[in-house]
Amino acid sequence: MRSPFAYTPRPGPLQSASPGAAVVYLGALVVVAFLYSNPIVLAAVGAAAALAGRLAGARRAVRAAIWLGLAIALPIVIVNALVVSRGATVLLRLGEWPLFGQVDVTAEAIADGAVFGLRAVVVMIAFAVYSACVDPDRVLRALRPFAGRSALTATLISRLVPVAAADAARLRDAGRLRGPAAAPLGRATMARRLLTGSLDRAVDVAATLELRGYALAPRRRRLNEAFGGAEYPKAFQRRSRYDRRFYVVGPVVLVAAVAGQFLGADGFSAYPTIEVGTEPVTVALSVLIVLSGLAPWRRNA
Amino acid sequence: MRSRSLAVAVVLLCAALGTAGCGFGPGSGVGEVLLTVTRDYGAEPVQPPVAETASESDTVMRVLDRNADISTRFGGGFVQAIDGLEAERGSGRSSDWFFYVNGVESTVGAAEYPLRGGEAIWWDYRDWTDVMRVPAVVGSWPQPFVGGYDGERRPVAVECLGGAAACDTVRAALGAAGASVIAGSPQGAIRVLVGPWARLRRDAAAAQIGDGPQASGVFAELERDGAGFRLTGLGTDGEPVRTFGPKTGLVAATRRYDAPPTWVVTGVDPAGVRAAATLLDAATLRDRYAVATEGGEEIPLPLGAS
Predict the structure, then answer these.
(1) What is the pLDDT of residues B206-247, one digit of tens each?
(2) CB contact set of B79 (below 8 Å; sequence gap of 6+)
């Protein structure tokens, strides 16, 4: 079964957009999630990322990210509640614990942990949408002119992982076909076999990449050479008509978030008592962020 | 049968947790605490003193939060502002909120300082640019002699280094306040050194006063003046402001490393020591870092703090 986070080609704007545009758009949401602690703004970022994922057809990825994020958030809340005894509203006294000292569970520590957890969920959603909607090959191709070796390494790894998974499946099938009397094939044996064969398989993958033209010069230079040094026609440039909206929406969200910081939109403090800012600027910023989730919308979807 | 065992186990667990001090909510009252909030080395009250009953789970921060409008930083561990008076950095000077419990500067944050009842909590907003650390103050008298510090009652030892009459006065004041003075000076005792500065200055803790306010937190200088000594009152910047004459006394507190606080009841001469001994009462010492006396006049130190 395919991972819900695996890239699936679809005709949506986010999938069609160039990797740079998608990164600017989703990256802006992630940056805002780290800039802000106000739960209203964080919830808005989460809603925007989920909306973008849904419009881009990555509903499974969003759902999986929410569950995975909650699985990470819950321990954060519990640990924060036990480790931090600050806050005015004591809900539970758990006495003296070794290493921890006096443990008081306070509403403020729970709220503070919940904000950390919410941030984790939001970031998970944004990365899930990125993973499910942005073609990793195009990202690596875009990176190649700037960091050739890193791009090659990342490409090899990204290709080698499914190759190793397929090898493992084949080995497991082969093990089963030996019959019920044969000794079971342990995980360690399987891992050892895959490891010893990994270098050969990496060479295979590299050879395949070379055969498919990976070692050739970047597309722009090749096309320039093909056109005798003259700038090649715009038609050859692989840009999506959706790029512009992502290049606009991402920076707009980011600039609004930075301006919001100066205008006091990040009103939140957990200690000594919980205070959540609900100023108009916070609400306005949150609405703007949620609306930014509509960027991958397509009229004929 | 199984459900009965489970019920018994739950009851036993609850009983064990209850015995271990566990429970819902802030817990029951443990005793009254006194909260004082001042500024500029105690020169000006920020709000009237408040006495309230502390609960089992109360910390210095929780008591302050209940009685004042505060804002915090560093994850709620550091008080940024009380009643709108905010910590400041600028023009090369820094002011912040400091707190003392029973007259002793805490080594842990206000949110981590548990209360056991009976404590005197004193928050003071001061400029600490020139003198960063004032480890002990006299302004919570009769604390720490009655309630100890860091949640532990301590023995009180009066060390007479000359000036027998003054020693008697000090012992009487401590006894009247409810402190039990023990004989000798065991380790861990809060010491009160009584005597002229010529004798006290040989004590390692008291000698810190001679090293200046940066070392002792006491804004006074005792320098040799001919055959005797001369007391100079310092300002908040640690610079000399006023030189006192003969028969001048001083009551101050200091602390050497993590040792219990040491109070000094001293003077430039025996008359000064006697005068200093009479300062030991709540009305005179309240909200003071240290107090000097000259000709019957009580002079809070540092000078010109307001």
Answers:
(1) 999 999 999 999 999 999 988 889 999 999 999 999 999 999
(2) B61, B64, B70, B71, B72, B87, B97, B99, B110, B123
Residue A255 in tokens: 């600039």
- Does the pLDDT value for residue A283 go beyond 90? yes
User: Measured between CB atoms, does B77 come within 8 Å of chain A?
Assistant: yes
Q: Percentage of residues in chain A with pLDDT exceeding 90?
A: 55
User: At which residue do the structure tokens 């614990």 appear?
Assistant: A97
Among the ranges given (A79-88, A219-228, B219-228, B280-289), the one the predictor scored with the smallest mean pLDDT: A219-228
Q: Is A264 or A219 the better-scoring residue by pLDDT?
A: A264
B2-33 pLDDT, tens digit per residue, is 778 878 877 776 666 666 668 898 888 999 99
pLDDT digits (tens, 9 = 90+) for B52-80: 999 999 999 999 999 999 999 888 889 99
How far apart CA B177 and CA B156 sit, in angstroms, is 12
Of B17, B70, B77, the CB nearest to A86: B77
User: How far B57 CA lies from chain A's nearest CA (Å)?
Assistant: 7
Strand, helix or coil for residue B161: coil
Q: Is B66 an interface residue toward A (CB < 8 Å)? A: yes
The DSSP call for residue B130 is: S
Consecutive H or E run containing B240: strand B240-243
CB atoms A86 and B75 under 8 Å: yes
For every residue of A154-187, which 3-state class applies, written as one string?
HHHHHHHHHHHHHHHHHHHHHHHCCCCCCCCCCH
B194 forms beta bridges with: B160, B265
ipTM: 0.77
Cis peptide before B155 (omega within 30 of 0): no
Mean pLDDT of A250-276: 95
- Which positions in chain A touch B20 (Cβ < 8 Å)? 95-96
Secondary structure in 3-state letters for chain A: CCCCCCCCCCCCHHHHCCHHHHHHHHHHHHHHHHHCCCHHHHHHHHHHHHHHHHHCCCHHHHHHHHHHHHHHHHHHHHHHHHHCCCCCCEEEEEEEECCCEEEEEEHHHHHHHHHHHHHHHHHHHHHHHHHHHCCHHHHHHHHCCCCHHHHHHHHHHHHHHHHHHHHHHHHHHHHHCCCCCCCCCCHHHHHHHHHHHHHHHHHHHHHHHHHCCCCCCCHHHHHHHHCCCCCCCHHHCCCCCCHHHHHHHHHHHHHHHHHHHHHCCCCEECCCCCEECCCHHHHHHHHHHHHHCCCCCCCCC
**Segment 22-41 of chain B within 8 Å of chain A by CB:** 22-27
Q: How many residues does chain B have?
A: 306
**Which tokens belong to A285?**
């910023």
Q: In what order do the strands lie in the sheet with A101-106?
A: A101-106, A90-97, B22-24
Distance of CA A201 to the CA centre of its chain: 28
Paired tokens of B4:
């009965």
- Greatest CA span in chain A, whole angstroms? 80
Could you give the count of Cα atoms lying within 13 Å of B245 in the half-sphere of its Cβ? 4
Q: How far is CA A24 from CA A21, A42, A248, A289, B66, in A?
A: 5, 18, 9, 14, 46
Look at the block and give the residue holding tokens 């919308």: A297
pTM over 0.90: no
User: For B104, what's the count of Cα atoms within 13 Å in the CB-facing half-sphere?
Assistant: 28
State the sign of the Cα–Cα–Cα–Cα dihedral A142, A147, A152, A157.
Answer: negative
